């Protein structure tokens, strides 16, 4: 909303400026925990190079600063803390009297110019001729002189007896089954002519059904799977069986059927 009072200029008020921050620490004190000024001759803010080096040198150790600083040339060398093993022989070697000779030192010189007049070829031949042959420590078992040599083991006789008894039991069981079958003679009855004609017609109907399925694959020469081959062979076998049954029922004469069926 506009107003005429907005045209009147407002008096300028200077913003409040806080006083400059002054640290309570000395700005000229040497820097702590800093590595500036340790190398070279350039000085850093807060103190001279000598003051910085002196400050860092005194506080660069883990121990108290009152101790003297170790010289750079006096560093820990390899093997200075290790203890040398005693060169004396062990207690076991001293007790048994079997001690190995010491290793020759670096300044020891080997004996030179020693030669032997021994003929090793002749010496070895003489030693081999005069040596006594060593006999075997353990003698082998003489199986020929054993008590049971050439005799049949007892366990084989037991096995043969068990096999004989099992065969007798099987023969006895088969004999009883055959005698029961012979005692009960099988009876046959003549099939009625009308039943034979009906059975032949049903077989022919089934043959037509199987032949219809067979005709769909009989012309194929390349089969994609073994299932198709088995299907074709199965239909051929089924047709052959139906044809044999039809020919048997159409023969002249009566057809005899067992009563058990």
From TrEMBL:
Chief location bin: other
Region (Disordered): 79-108
Record's subcellular location: Cell projection, Cilium; Cytoplasm, Cytoskeleton
Gene Ontology terms for molecular function: calmodulin binding
Gene Ontology cellular-component terms listed: cilium; cytoskeleton
Xref: InterPro entries: Enkurin_dom, Enkurin_domain-protein
Keywords associated with the record: Cell projection, Cytoplasm, Cytoskeleton
Domain Enkurin: 158-257
Record PANTHER family: ENKURIN, ENKURIN-RELATED
Protein name: Enkurin domain-containing protein
Source organism (scientific name): Triparma strigata
């Amino acid at each position: 909303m506009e107003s005429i009072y907005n045209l009147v200029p407002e008096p300028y008020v200077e913003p409040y400026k806080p006083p400059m921050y002054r640290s309570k620490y000395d700005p000229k004190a040497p820097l702590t925990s800093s590595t500036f000024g340790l190398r070279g001759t350039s000085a850093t803010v807060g103190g001279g190079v000598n003051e910085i080096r002196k400050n860092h040198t005194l506080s660069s150790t883990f121990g108290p600063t009152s101790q003297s600083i170790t010289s750079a040339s006096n560093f820990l060398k390899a093997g200075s803390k290790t203890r040398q093993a005693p060169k004396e022989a062990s207690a076991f070697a001293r007790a048994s009297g079997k001690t190995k000779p010491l290793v020759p030192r670096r300044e020891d010189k080997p004996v030179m110019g020693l030669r032997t007049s021994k003929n090793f070829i002749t010496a070895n031949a003489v030693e081999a001729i005069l040596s006594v042959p060593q006999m075997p420590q353990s003698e082998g078992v003489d199986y020929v002189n054993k008590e049971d040599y050439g005799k049949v083991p007892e366990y084989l006789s037991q096995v043969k007896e068990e096999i004989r008894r099992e065969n007798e039991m099987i023969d006895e069981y088969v004999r009883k089954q055959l005698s029961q079958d012979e005692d009960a003679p099988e009876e046959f009855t003549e099939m009625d002519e009308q039943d034979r004609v009906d059975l032949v017609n049903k077989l022919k109907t089934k043959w037509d059904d199987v032949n219809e399925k067979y005709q769909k694959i009989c012309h194929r020469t390349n089969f994609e799977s073994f299932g198709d081959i088995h299907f074709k062979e199965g239909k051929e076998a089924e047709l052959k069986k139906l044809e044999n049954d039809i020919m048997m029922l159409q023969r002249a004469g009566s057809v005899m059927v067992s009563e058990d069926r």
